[in-house]
Amino acid sequence: MVIVIKKDQGDQVGHIKQKAEKLGMQVIITYGAGQNILALVGDTQKIELNQFEGLKGVEKVFRIQEPYKLASRYANRVDTVIEVCGRKIGGDHFTIMAGPCSVESEDQIMETALKVKEYGADFLRGGAFKPRTSPYSFQGLGVEGLKLLQKAKEATGLPTVTELMDHHDIDDVYKYADIIQIGARNMQNFSLLKEVGKCDKPVMLKRGMSSTIKEFLMSAEYIMSEGNEQVILCERGIRTFETHMRNTLDLNVVTAIQEMSHLPIMIDPSHATGRIEMIEPASRASVAIGAHGLLIEVHNNPMEALCDGPQSLTPEEFKVLSQRVKKIHQLMKEELA
Ligand code: PEP
Ligand code: MN
What we know:
single chain; alpha/beta; Alpha-Beta Plaits; TIM Barrel; 2 domains; eight-stranded parallel beta barrel; 11 helices; 14 strands; 35% helix; globular; binds phosphoenolpyruvate; binds manganese (II) ion
């Protein structure tokens, strides 16, 4: 249920929040441009709309029909902008996260981090816990990898994003990462989603490879319903009948999410295509359609990568991509303004 408070009567927000809490609801407040919105979460069916409709300051009361509520566009008409170490994600900001699929060694992460920083990345990505299809493949360096990522952050100033696969590692990942990534394979690991929902760090939630957009938003809702509203969505390609690419990039998800939700939506063209030559064109299309950012795999020496080498750009390839997408973003900002 959503209660919209009149523009000039923001002082009523506290009273109405209290009343809803007395009725057993969790209340999430959004102070939007010119409007204050209270989203009531809980068993709202036991509440009648007219319990709030007549109250001073209330403009409108309505139920959200969608099963996702906090993630829904109705809960917040203004785009959510998430600030991490002074960098903004969402709204009209465009964010590039880049780095290797996995952290492999100090030299590898340092060299790659310095390059992606030089060429325009805003965040450094790098997996320490890797979800590999084969149990015999490199599984990541674990905590050692997190420490190296931290070192690379200190050297470059780039905040980090890294995947949490198992709730046993949450304290370590929380300690070292600036954004906690939940991978495609865990998008519906509801207990893991609840765990990250309880922490106060932004979460980048990747779309499951066979998940619908609704299921994607329901997973975001799991995180948000535990109190963590800092969710960044990331499309990374879905499974279709097509085998030419590693996955099929569903660009429509950007438009759909922006209509259905207020959360930032990024694109990972590296996993979505799995092919070097397709990553930069897919990135250009992602900016043009309005994505809030890109997650790009870059390796200082892709031929030697222990994970996802065939889809890892060299730093120089990344430089070209970065320059081009920034130009398109700037152009679009000016056009739309
Ligand atoms: C990754 O980002 O390296 C990764 C494993 O992604 P996904 O979960 O989308 O497969
Ligand atoms: Mn990867």
